[in-house]
Amino acid sequence: MMPIKDNGCYCFTFETIDTVDIFTKAMYKQIIVHSLNHFIDAKGLVVYGWCLMSNKLYFIGQSLENISLETLRDDFIVFTCRKIVEAIKSDPSERNAWLLTHFENTSAADQSPVKQSCWGDINTTAQIDMKLPQSMAEQLEFIHGLPVKERVVQYSSDYIYSSARDYIGMPGLVKITKPATVESILYEIESRKNGFRTNYNQQ
After folding, report:
1. How far apart are CA 169 and CA 41, in angstroms?
2. Residue 185, φ and ψ in degrees, nearest 5
3. Helix spans in the chain (H)
């Protein structure tokens, strides 16, 4: 795993245990939305972009000055695990009973700080140079494009559980920070795509 320097900007990928599809219902998706907003409002987390798929959370962020990003990441893992486990327990089903048992078995083997852990691999995939807006724009373009790649939606801005909407001026679910230079680059990319779609549809 890439070492984290406090106040640096990084791309993170949180993967569920054995890539089990947990985030298929709105109630579980909203836990991630509320958790991100809570850490933004109360913990000093800055989020520039995010995307939640059925078994992975991608986000780009950093911490405010004098706050440990590594500590925020670890606290987020524990906080979301507890919330997700509570929600699964409140939604009884045969599959959810299996999930809870699976979380217990896995966390016992991994010596997790929580009794039941829904997260598996937690990767820091890249460090973003804030002086190079193109670098962040490319990472955002990648994560925003995942729902399109998986054929969940036709256009990235149609997917509400990501920051793609925010970067084209639509209201999003998470209180992200949008660097103006990055927003401009993404706008140009989206404009080129829209031009291609218009020309293609006219043929």
Report:
1. 21
2. -65, -45
3. 26-38, 69-89, 94-110, 133-144, 146-149, 180-202
**Burial degree of 49 (CB within 10 A; 0-12, 13-18, 19+):** buried
Domains of the chain, by residue range, sit at 9-202
Does residue 14 sit in helix, strand or coil? strand
CA distances for 164 relative to 19, 56, 101, angstroms: 23, 16, 35
Half-sphere exposure of 127 (CA within 13 A, CB side): 11
- 3-class DSSP state of 161: coil
Sign of CA dihedral 121, 30, 42, 131: positive
10-residue block means of pLDDT along the chain (203 residues)?
81 95 96 98 97 98 91 94 94 90 64 68 91 94 96 94 94 96 86 55 45
Domain 9-202 coded CATH 3.30.70.330? no
Integer-rounded Cα radius of gyration of the chain: 18
- pTM reported for the whole predicted model: 0.87
How far apart CA 72 and CA 58 sit, in angstroms, is 15
